[in-house]
Structures are given as C-alpha cells and as structure tokens.
Q: What sequence folds into this?
C-alpha cells in the first residue's frame, strides 16, 4: 500500500501543491486529472523527491521513505517523466541495461522482460534511442522504468505526441502489468480516453490539491463533471 499524508511542495519559494492526502492499494490504477497548471507534474515530482520545497510523508507498505531520492527506486517506485528523456546516443538495449545496472538489477533480465512486454523493441534493440519515433522512445522510457521491477509506476503525459496505435499498445501493456504483477499506476494525463482505458478511479486536481475522487463509472456517466472539472 502506498500512502501520501499532508503533502505540500514546490520550487524555490513557491508552493504548488498543498495538503494532499491519498492511499493507493496494491495493483490499483489511478488517473490524475485536471487542467494544465494545477500541480499534476509537481505531485509526481514530490513523490520522487525532486522538489526543493517539501513537507509531509510518503509511506510504502508502512515504511516512511524519508527525503532520499534514491530510496524511491530501492522501494519499488519508478517514474516516466513527461518528454521521455531517453539517452539518445545509447541503443535501446543500453538504455534499459544502464538503469537496471545502476539500481542493482539484472540487465539481461530487464531487457528480456522489456522485449516480452513490448515486442516492437526487439527489432530496434541495437538502434540509438534518439533515432526512434516519439512513440518508440516512450516505450523505451517505460521499459527503463520497468527495469527496477516497480510496485508503483508514475507516468506523466505518456500519450503526448504519440500515434494512436502505440497509445493502444501502451495501454494494453500497462493493464497487463497491473493485473499480472500487481503493479499500481498513477497516470497524469490530458487524454481522457487513454486514462479511462486503464484507470479504475481518478483524482481530480485543482489549485494544487485534490478536489474530488471519482470512480471510473462516475466519470464515464457524468459528462458535466468532466466539463466542469477538466474543461473538456
């Protein structure tokens, strides 16, 4: 179980998120929704300890993770940031291997697992990641995160700028991983259709905090809620 309590944080002297509390169960899939600028990315960076303003606690299975960023990977939390940020001059295999090796996981095992989840990567395994399409780079970025065998995976705008066929492949893979590996997901995303193809519930953010928690059924059945809270 993953728990955030009294989370507040931001950058320099500016507080972006404040007084956030939630719990996510093992294998639970959560969409983090809201208009641009409400703090979705900041909340993910808070979880990964990438802010210089930080208060509150994060617990994984009852253990306080403290403020050490390296404790995230060691405690089975992985992050796929917006914009992908692959190592452009390394091959696909090397991108995955270096993350596994840096966190004391078996690199060959991580590569084999990535090819099993995303077969498209195998044909490109020896190509530099910078030469791939945006969708293929996103798959590499997700595969790198999976190299640490996460129990909770954070994704920031994973469908941004990606062709529909690869968005579908990513959604299928994430659902499979959640179901077979009991991997929890937090997905910050503007693409509501993509989110709802994966998430079981949604946290609606506004003004740096969580305004509502809604089930997938509530979001799908009440379009007025979507219009009012998300502006879509």
A:
């Amino acid at each position: 179980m993953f728990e955030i309590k009294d989370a507040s944080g931001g950058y320099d002297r500016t507080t972006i998120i404040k007084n956030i509390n939630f719990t996510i169960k093992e294998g639970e899939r959560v969409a983090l929704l809201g208009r641009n600028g409400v703090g979705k990315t900041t909340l993910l960076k808070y979880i990964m300890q990438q802010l210089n303003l930080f208060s509150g606690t994060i617990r994984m299975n009852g253990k306080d993770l403290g403020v050490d960023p390296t404790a995230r990977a060691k405690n089975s939390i992985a992050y796929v940031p917006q914009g992908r940020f692959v190592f452009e001059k390394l091959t696909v295999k090397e991108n995955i291997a270096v993350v596994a090796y840096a966190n004391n996981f078996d690199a060959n095992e991580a590569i084999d697992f990535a090819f099993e989840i995303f077969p498209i990567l195998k044909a490109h395994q020896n190509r530099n990641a910078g030469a791939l399409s945006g969708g293929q780079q996103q798959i590499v970025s997700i595969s790198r995160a999976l190299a640490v065998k996460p129990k909770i995976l954070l994704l920031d705008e994973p469908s941004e700028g990606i062709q529909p066929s690869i968005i579908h492949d990513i959604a299928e893979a994430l659902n499979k991983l959640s179901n077979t590996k009991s991997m929890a997901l937090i997905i910050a995303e503007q693409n509501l259709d993509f989110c709802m193809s994966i998430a079981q519930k949604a946290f609606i953010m506004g003004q740096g905090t969580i305004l509502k928690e809604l089930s997938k059924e509530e979001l799908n059945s009440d379009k007025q809620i979507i219009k009012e809270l998300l502006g879509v």
